[in-house]
Amino acid sequence: MRCYATVGPEAFAIVAALQGDEDMEHFASNLLRRYVDAYAQAFRPYIEAPMDVLTIRCTAIVGAAEALSGVMLRNEIEKREAVSTLFSLITSWFGHECETTQLRS
After folding, report:
1. CB neighbours (10 Å) of residue 32?
2. Contact present, 43 and 54 (Cβ < 8 Å)
3. pLDDT tens digits for 12-68?
């Protein structure tokens, strides 16, 4: 949320303006994949789910973060609410698995 708050609504306008350009769409797709991979690598040591399940969940988390940041930038919700909502999503999907893995360590 901090990143989107720093960049502001211009980030969404720039992305929208560049849609339709094949090179930029390829760049955006690769950027999304890197975000998903970063999340998956961060959670991998704590999650016993198969990698494809982890990747799908991380894709959803990144999408939710982007959607929440858009709502936040339109001043429809406060940053605190966006962060707590994303936190709730992450912990509902991964919280129990992380606790179980830590107990076994």
Report:
1. 14
2. yes
3. 677 677 778 888 888 888 888 999 999 999 999 988 889 999 999 999 999 999 999
